[in-house]
Design brief:
By secondary structure, this protein is α+β, with helices and mostly antiparallel strands. The protein has helices spanning about 15-20, 30-50, 100-115, 130-135, 150-170, 170-190; strands at about 5-10, 50-60, 60-75, 80-90, 120. Strands 1-2-3-4-5 form a five-stranded mixed sheet, sandwiched between helices. Helix 1 (about 15-20) packs across helix 2 and helix 5 crosses helix 6 (about 170-190). The longest helix is centred in the last third of the chain and has 20 residues, at about 150-170.
Length: about 190
Amino acid sequence: MGRSQVVVRDAVLEDLDFLAGLWSTSLRRGESGVQRADLVAILERVDVLGTHRLVVAEHDARPAGAVLLLVDTVSSLNLEPTIRVVSPIVLPDVRRQGVGHALMEAALAFAEQHDIVTLSTAVSPGARESNRFMARLGFSAQATYRLASVPVVRARLRGQRAGLTVAGGNGRAATRVIAARRSMRRSRAAG
């Protein structure tokens, strides 16, 4: 039995439910109405700007995967143009059917259309198959993208500053605390 046909097309408003389900973990947290509004805004931006494209891949005439393509720069400091391949996702029941390859072919065509020679993407570190797929296509790790809320970072910075103040103000006391902790760790490891 041969592979079923995969067709790639631009996304339309009728794809909102499919896209919301496919990208549920990638979209902004909140109510489905907020997520749908975000998707509508993305679709509107795609219609207005020639530097964005939202692609849906169909397998056997039903949506099976999608990807958002953006003309961007490698980073805020490296202004070399690149095509950012955002959230290329394929439904689990149609993986290994050519859908992912079709989405990446669309990314290549978009890059060639804009005369850009590199593609960039971000894949969750826990997405083993996705990381392997991208590595097989020649993508290599360039950075680790991390995200944290402002209150968490503020609390951690304050905690670290407090620790520095204690150590700086009374270095011998901090040295004794560190030595006691090391001793406790050695005792636990030996016991």
